Every structure is written in structure tokens, then in C-alpha cells.
Amino acid sequence: MNIRPLSGADLAAALPALARLRIEVFRAFPYLYEGSPAYEETYLRKLAQAKDAFIVAAETEDGEIVGCATGSGMDDQHAEFALPLQTAGYDLATTFYFGESVLLAAWRGHGIGHAFFDAREAHAIAHGYKRACFCAVERPVDHPKRPPDYSPLDTFWQARGYRKLPGVMAHFTWPEQAGGPELAHPMAYWMREF
Q1: Distance (Å, rounded) from C-alpha 73 to C-alpha 138?
Q2: Helix or strand run (H / E) with residue 72
């Protein structure tokens, strides 16, 4: 497995694969996201141009991208992401935002998730950030689409030093089915001080 940052021509060439990967991983519980390749490529291209942007990918020996993780400066995020933290009193200019960390199910449990966090944290620290944060969707334990074997990532995040910020929430919209309406989803913030 090769874990490497993507930029320039490498990133441009990887955009379709990254878009497909995000759609496949986020389609599952808890996100239940029904995305489109066109939207995803536009999103990733914009993210790659954000302040201190960072995209790291996991590739198999034959070059197949099976996971990726992203991040950028929080003060260059949409207001929907930034405002809840700003309202809670956090300095956006010294906060690095982890956009997502997605990995195909077959490759989980091999340390790739830790490698993604390590790479993004090292990038954030090298660029002078004092903390990192991310958002995670909140679903009730009795959600009808929750698989019986579903295990939340809270323990993994806590072991890496992240804590859920009490009372700091955002609501983002996305469709849960093709052609369906944009539904509001509650998102909790998790943070680690460096």
C-alpha cells in the first residue's frame, strides 16, 4: 500500500477515482449520501485550491486508489462549516479542517486510517495550525437503516486525541437517494489541540 499526497497533475488525474470513492463510501450508513460524479469532481477541485489544502491517497501496488483524506484551513471553508466554530469562540485562522477520510471496506483495519490522520496532522502542524477539527454526521442508535454490525468511529477518534465539542453543531443537506430531496443532517464537531 502506498500512502501519498496528491497535487498538481497527479491530483487532476485522480479526481474521477476520488469522486467515485467518495460516492461509494458515503453511500453507506451513517452518511447515506447519494452523490454525483460531476458534483464530487467540482467539490474536490475546489478543495484542492483552498488555503493550505492537503489530499492524501492510499493506492494499491497496481495504482488503484482505495482511500483518500482531505484537509484545508478552516478560515477558507464555507460559512456553514466555519460559523459554528467561530460562534463557539475558536480562532479559525489557527484551525485546520479535515474534510473527509474515506476508505473502501476491504482495506479497513490495516492502519490506513491512522496514516491518513498522521499525514494531515503533520501537514497542519507544519503550516502553523494549533488544532484540527472535523464534522461527523449524528444518527440515532435506532435509525432504521443502521446495520446490525455498525460500529461508530468515536473510539478511534478519541484514541487519537479528538473530543466531541459539546453543543457545537451544524446542519448540512444532501440527498439520500438518486433524484431525492436535499435533507438536513446534524453534524457534530470533533477537535484536537496540538
Answers
A1: 23
A2: strand 65-73
Give residue-wise pLDDT tens across range 113-171: 999 999 999 999 999 999 999 999 999 999 999 999 998 999 999 999 999 999 999 99
The cell for 95 is 484551525
Q: Which residue intervals of the chain are DSSP H helices?
A: 8-27, 37-48, 79-87, 112-126, 154-159
What the chain holds in terms of domains, given with CATH numbers, is 2-193 (3.40.630.30)
Cα–Cα distance list, 94 to 56, 97, 127, 133 (Å): 21, 10, 9, 11
All cell numbers assigned to 62: 497496481
3-state secondary structure of 139: coil
**Cell output for 168:** 457545537
